[in-house]
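Need tokens for this chain, all 385 residues.
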Amino acid sequence: MWRAISEVGRDPGGGYTRDAWSPPDLELREWFRQEAARRGLDAHEDRNGNMWAWWGDPDTPGGGVVTGSHLDSVRQGGAYDGPLGVVSAFAALDDLRARGVRPRRPVAVACFTDEEGARFGVPCIGSRLLTGALDPGRARALTGDDGGTLAEAMRAAGRDPGGLGRDETTLRRVGVFVELHVEQGRALVHEEAPVGVGRAIWPHGRWRLEFRGRADHAGTTRLADRDDPMLPFAETVLAAREAARRHGVVATVGKVRVRPGSANAIPGRVTAWLDARGPEEGPVRALVAELAPRAAEVACESWTPLVEFDPALRDRLAAALGGVPVLPTGAGHDAGVLASAGVPSAMVYVRNPTGISHSPEEHAEPDDCRAGVAALARVVEELCT
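Here are the structure tokens for all 385 residues:
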């Protein structure tokens, strides 16, 4: 399975770029359908673009045991963030079948659409739409860097954006969700453990900051006569770093748009995106409030409060895996969105030797990946039998 997808969406700058509804994304969706068909699973795409491959009747009362992740990536991202969870889900089902396990509940592999939000700016679009956390009208109007909307991208891919929104039928089918993911940190390295279980996801959000000035000539405009929005923007980046240190959180400006974007012109406008996260909501909100007066306009594009995974489910999984470490994380996931909507959800993490993620250097050792598959198979068997 890894070989089949290893070249899909390769970025010339390194790593992978697999935007939602792009040609690489559509190729990966076809790969998902083929893997489901090879196993005789009933595969379909829901009206929000999420994909499901069912072993058993999905409409069984009480819902089924679902596992999976996503196949899209950040720009120039790593190979493991998302795909490891989907590939491992298929491999875990193979293990159960090879051992003759007979589920008492249906089991499914899921692939959520646009988890990273790299193209349209909002993360976990598929799961947020599914659960009703994202307004479908707002979703259709989201724009990418090329100016095109999500609705236009879906139509170009042969989908109908008119059906976006909370999907009660699909939600009823998800009795419990377990997402396997490469760890985006080094806690398991320090614990000397190949796998762990998720305890919570930090509160986190994304804000758009606008800085306005006056476009002018770079060579003929005196410094005293300039209204350059790049200066307050640069000061804000430095202030964000200092405020994050004081508040005990993390803050990142990883995306900037400069207009008109000419090397020989003073910018007239700078748009920047601030990502802020922390163990508690209050300090994150305080950081944003502290920075807001520096910008002409501040808009919250997404916010996820603290997510505590279902304690009973979490403890059951940790026990089934022999008392593995239980970890918090600052990374958002579809499992967190489902948990916030009341779906019993959990996460299994696979050790990352460097802790690097959202980068071509993201890595997991083959033996740890196999340990993750074994752990996921054990968990799914525990839940479906």
